Request: fold
Amino acid sequence: MSVAQTAPPAAAKRKGPKGPTVRQRLDVAARAVAAIVVGYVFAALSTAVLARLLPGGPEEATIAATLLSFAVYTTVVVWAFADPKTWRVWLGLAAGCAALGAVLWISLIVEPRL
Amino acid sequence: MTHLAMLLFAYAGFVGICASMAKHQPELLGAKLEPVRQRQVRWGGAAALAAAYACAVLADGWKFGSVEWVGAISLAALTLTLVAPYRPRQAAQAGAGAAFVGAMLLASALLLSVK
Amino acid sequence: MNGSFRQSMAWLHTWSGLLVGWVLLAMFLTGTATYFRPEITRWMEPETGMPADYHIAAAGAAAYLSKVAPDAKSWSITLPNERQATANVSWQPQPKPGEEEKPRRRGRNRDTQATLDAVTGEVVKPRDTRGGEFFYRFHFQMHYLPVIWGRWFAGLCAMFMLVAIVSGVITHKRIFKDFFTFRPTKAAQRSWLDAHNMTAVLALPFHAMITYTGLVTLMALYMPWGVLANYTSDDAYFKAVFPRAEEVERSGVPSPLAPLPKVLDEASKAWGGGRPWIINVSNPGDASARIEVTRHSGDKLSYRGGSLTFDANGKLLSRSPEPGPANVTAGAMYGLHMGRFAEPVLRWVYFLCSLAGCAMVGTGLVLWSVARRQKLPDPERPHFGFRLVEKLNIGTIAGVPAGMAAMLWANRLLPAEMANRSPWEVHSMFILWGGMILYACLRPSKKAWMETLGLAAVMVAALPIVSAVTTPQRNLFANAMRGDWAMVAFDLTLVALGALLAFCGWKAARYKPAAKPKRKARATAIASEAA
Reply:
């Protein structure tokens, strides 16, 4: 395990007294926003969709979906920092949110809330 | 009594598993073990951990017992890891002693419950 | 990021752990203390007596309530368990005609609630204190913040922790090979890394469990979207998940209430030996009275104890429906986090694992400084970020335990009649914590470590003496003579924790950073070996 290696790897190579470059800072910021904010939206939408689609009646499905939500959120955060390409993170999350939103919307039309 | 046996078995179990790892053998045992002996020690350790689980279930049922076992083996491993760098030989000997006392306690608890 | 998967996870682990590390440490420490919440409360309320059987407490509470509020709309009795010395009762007066029924306010309404001695049923007026309740509340909703913000902030920190755990496990590629590895005599960075790995890995099941279940305890707040997707309102959801008995109109026919101890025995029988916890009586003294008995949450792994409803004569009318599997799972996760089911051995296991969690967070914070120090261009004059982390580390690792002790000191030393007494008890914790951070900023780091840890050790270990001097009925011998072993253990635990802090201070005093060039060589060796 490498704790000495605390800077983003690309920064480590060029790292002198100056620290990370502006580009690297922006990259980290973009990933952080994607992970924390968009990741939450994704987790929220997936919870809503699962709460409607899981079997076992609405209370049970709601609880099961909510229990899972934190695992979904964590996975998204880890991925947002693991994927080598920042644009892919944003694109992936945007597409995922759109798809989940569409499923939720259709599901709400087919069967309204209690 | 079964609780104490559980803690002792948990400690003994990790002593066994630790002693079966080649990198710890020089400090804990003073010598490397033969592959056959090493396997025996590892299985002995695993058996002690299983015995700890049996004690936990016996004491508190399988639900609470399982929770208790996971916590107890964590603590046993922490204790061993904290003590071993300072008193490696004694830590290993204590493991053998713990297994013995644990077995006595478990046996007497079982005898008492039969009566 | 731009690098190997493991490298980006190491980066994520470092920063998710560091950014909220100090808050996490405070949450861990107060949460650890909360496993002994009833004992802390008993310690902080020396005016209260000893725990008693709940039958006695129930009879005493019913006698008290029928004296002070014979025709209330409802009574509520929280029975003491074997760790609590008081029963809490409250009642809701009949709404005056024409007056709109106010929704029950949370918190204390002093006119309609009382604390009763578990043995005698007499009102006890302990000193104004929040007791162990404060650590419990701070643990998930902070302080000096609106409750909802505090809870969101705690949730955010818990998410950072969860991410740090997952990324930490991914980063650590030799979990099993290094399972028992601790080399306290090696170079600073190596031994701190070992200590961090050891406390994290060996108690990993506990850390992962406690973090995830912590989020689950407030999931309705953090993730309301599942509920909103299925229900038009929260109320509809809560009615579906926690169905409550219908309210009954007052009949106007007076009828004595069945003796509560007998009702409790009935309840216990219906649960196959379970313990009662909360009794709600609606329309007491009326023929239409209903007695609802809620099961103690510590009886089962799942927190959803369920409840039984009896009529005025003590006949069982209905029981709450069995929850479904997902609901039981949620209850079990909640129960696992609270650990209320834990009998003494298991409670100590929880406490010690939780202390290992504190050590994990603390060693992680220190490790950041130790690892960074070697990369500083000039270790004599570190940059601002480094200094900030180092000072916050000192001020928090020593400051939170010292602050928690300060609260207990204030509990004994503040005058009993003081206005705003309990808020000042709480302020004292934050004053000391803040003071420690400030002090750390003013002193050279090594001296600050020694001195703050030394002060924390003395403050914690001296508490039994402070207690013995200020409250004679609560010294070690008096406790032992009374057979109050919980309080004896409490005092001894404080001494042990003080010794632990003193040991840390002693370690800090002996700590000598190796000469720089050698360290640099070793650091690169470690990095390349590990990466």
